[in-house]
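stage 2 :: seqdesign
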């Protein structure tokens, strides 16, 4: 596995972990906030969905980038 592919994979893993943490924070906010704070909860949920969309787009980018990194995996 080339260093480039490894770094891209680690970056994708990091982005996925951040998305998981944001989702867990959203769940915690939903559990703890009362009805008066519903607007904040809705805004935070929108942020979570947008960050999820970013994560999916980044995953698609890494899949498109994979064939390029395979060129460097082959021994000369």
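stage 2 :: out
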């Amino acid at each position: 596995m080339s260093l480039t592919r490894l770094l891209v994979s680690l970056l994708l893993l990091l982005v996925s972990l951040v998305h998981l943490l944001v989702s867990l924070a959203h769940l915690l906010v939903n559990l703890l906030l009362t009805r008066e704070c519903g607007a904040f909860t809705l805004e935070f949920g929108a942020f979570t969905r947008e960050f999820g969309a970013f994560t999916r787009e980044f995953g698609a980018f890494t899949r498109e980038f994979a064939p390029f990194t395979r060129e460097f995996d082959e021994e000369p």
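stage 3 :: structure notes
- Helices lie at 3-32, 38-73.
- Residues 2 and 72 are 6 Å apart (CA to CA).
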